[in-house]
Amino acid sequence: MKKRSILMLGVACVLLSSCVVSKKKFEIAEAGRLAALYSRDSLADLLGMSRTDYAILDELKNGLEADTALLKSSIRNYQQLLASGQNENQKLNANLAQKISELQDREKTIAELQKMIDQQKKKVKDLLSSVKDALLGFSSDELTVREQDGKVYVAMSDKLLFESGKAIVNQQGREALGKLAQVLNKQTDIDVYIEGHTDNVPIKTAVFQDNWDLSVIRATSVVRILTQTYGVNPLQIQPCGRGEYKPVDVNTSSEGRARNRRTEIIMAPRLDKLFKMLEESK
After folding, report:
1. 48-70 CB burial, b ≥16 within 10 A, e <16
2. What is d(CA 260, CA 250) in angstroms, rounded to the nearest whole number?
3. Over the chain (282 residues), what is each successive 10-residue block's mean pLDDT?
4. From the CB of residue 86, how many other CB atoms can be counted at a distance below 10 Å?
5. 269 three-class SS
6. For the chain, how many structural domains are there in total?
7. What is the CATH number of the domain that holds 172?
8. Within a 10 A sphere around the Cβ of 250, how many other Cβ atoms?
């Protein structure tokens, strides 16, 4: 009986000890739950706010967090746009640099062309002066010298070069052509065109069929004197006949017809280099 009492007392002690431990764990857990439940209220109390004010503040905080997230997204978008804009600016800057380079090349070409044009003008001016000096002893009725469209024209009357209706150059004409040849032989970079002209009075002889025929043969006679007698380069010189179809005066008066009967020596500086540069600049 005594042993039974001692056993029951031991069991009771064990149960009592277990209850004490479980109660402590419960109290700790309950305290944590209450702390979590009333943390916002406690924080509001600590800050001296009502629960309503804290709720408003919490709502504002949440709104600010949402706005901040949108702002971050916008910033990322702007950064992407900025990077894209920088790439576009780089392309624009590259294109601009290329255009500036092309413009500089064009300006350089224009400057070179202008220099060549100025040189051509000076060459024509010097040629005109040389021809005038060489033919200074002849009157205006015998020949005229002029510059037109970048070329030098020497118009020799038929009475200076030929007898009426003939195509053989006379002595006075040979002397005039000799003086002109002295200038031409120093101008190796010009082309020379010999044009024969007549009035509109018809001609038909055993030698010449018409005015075309007369103008061509007179031009050829002048070419032979210049090349064979005075050594002008044949590759520089070209004869042609214009007949009555390019008059400088009317054919209704004797004076006008006299002016139309002429041989023109046309001197044109070569423009090969200028044309080549123009082609290359296109």
Report:
1. eeeeeebeeeeeeeeeeeeeeee
2. 8
3. 48 45 59 54 53 65 74 77 75 79 78 81 92 93 93 95 92 96 92 96 91 96 97 95 95 95 94 66 64
4. 10
5. strand
6. 1
7. 3.30.1330.60
8. 13
